[in-house]
Amino acid sequence: MGSLVGHIAPLAFGLAAIGSGVGVGIIVGKTVESVARQPELAGRLQTLMWIGIAITEALCFIAIGVAFIPFPQP
Amino acid sequence: METVLSSLVLALLPRLADDSSNGGFVAPSVDELFPDAVLFAGTPFALNRILLIRLLAVVVMCLILWLASRRMRVVPGKGQVAFEFMFDFIRKGVVIDTLGEKDGRRFMPVLLTIFFATLAMNLTGTIPGLQIASTALIGQALLMAVLAYVLFVYAGIKKFGVGRFFKNALWLPGVPVFLRPVIAILEVLSTFIVRPVTLTLRLTMNMLAGHMLLALCFLATHFFFLTVLADGNLLGLLGLGTLAMGVAFTVLELFVAVLQAYIFTILTAIYIQLALAEEH
């Protein structure tokens, strides 16, 4: 059997990136839709969009941060 | 004096952390972010390459802003138009739009400072000869995030006083009473812990990942051309592909540098606005 040597933390980031990638995509897409419907609300909607993105992206950054937590080795 | 200057310039140029590969492929590593100290080694003020680049970025940005604002005219020249466009973009598009006219003016100087400082330090990632974003080391991003944190907590406390600020932020009116303590705990987490952490990590990790991508592309080009192709192996022509990728990613990194500075500024403005809002 072959063996795989390396670091598993990037994998955690990859998995987390799937979720927040989809989330950010939905948020931005919906904002574009709403701005197309009501262009006069663009400023307010953009603010809400950034808040939403900041919260969704946080999950991604937690996944990055986990790689730096010194867990005890077995 | 001349030797000091030339050694400083030499210290600023990028080089591989470890060049003991004898022609093999060298992957980029995080060690490039922790080079040896150049000045004042051994003291708490030891300066290494990254810190020198930071100082250089600050000096250059101050110089450019000073030159641009030295002789303002009613009919602007080319340089003035460019800078007025940038300032207007942040003033109107970010600060006034988010915070409103009155509060916007109050927080304008610090938000503009955050934008231009972050921009200058991000752009060093794509400047030839420097090639590393000084925000890729976490200290700078952390300092900015702490500044943003202090700003929005200060703004809220100044306006409402300590009690009402925390009540506004944590005790949400639209929620059923029995759920409010749970929501309050979540709000403590998201407002006072996750916000500064994500501000820091977003900036650092974007710049770090960008640097790694660029380093990988150009190191691969170096390896393909100077080792594989020089040996007479035509596989070395793959270097053309990695070179093209490197150039494309350089353009992308320029865009990311501006985008991250913009996002950092607008998020800081939004956090201040949320702290100043009557209730949300």
Reconstruct the topology from this structure.
The complex is a heterodimer of chains A (74) and B (280).
Chain A: H1 9-37, H2 42-66
Helix pairs in contact in A: 1-2
Chain B: H1 2-12, E1 37-39, E2 47-48, H2 49-70, H3 78-99, H4 101-123, H5 138-170, H6 180-229, H7 238-276
Antiparallel strand pairs in B: 1-2
Folded structure, characterized:
The longest helix of chain A is centred in the N-terminal third of the chain and has 29 residues, at 9-37. Chain A has helices at residues 9-37, 42-66. Chain A contains two helices and no strands. Chain A has a domain at 18-66: Up-down Bundle (F1FO ATP Synthase), CATH 1.20.20. By secondary structure, chain A is mainly α. Chain B has a two-stranded antiparallel ribbon with strand order 1-2. In chain B, strand 1 and strand 2 (47-48) form a beta hairpin. In chain B, helix 3 (78-99) crosses helix 4 and helix 4 runs antiparallel to helix 7 (238-276). The radius of gyration of chain B is 23 Å and the shape is globular. In chain B, 30% of the residues are buried. Classes of the chains: A mainly alpha (74), B mainly alpha (280). Chains A and B meet through helix 2 of A and helix 6 and helix 7 of B.
CATH class type of the domain at 18-66 in chain A: Mainly Alpha
Strand content of chain A: under 5%
- Helix fraction of chain A? over 70%
What Rg of chain A, in angstroms, do the CA atoms define?
18 Å
Broad shape of chain A: elongated
- The chain-level mean pLDDT of chain B equals 86
Number of extended strands of chain B:
2
Instruction: Quickly give the structural class of chain A.
Output: mainly alpha
Shape category of chain B: globular
Query: Strand order, biggest sheet of chain B?
Result: 1-2
The H-level CATH homologous superfamily of the domain at 18-66 in chain A, spelled out, is F1F0 ATP synthase subunit C
Structural class of chain B: mainly alpha
Q: Please tell me the CATH architecture of the domain at 18-66 in chain A by its name.
A: Up-down Bundle
Most extensive chain interface and residues per partner? A-B, 11 and 16 residues
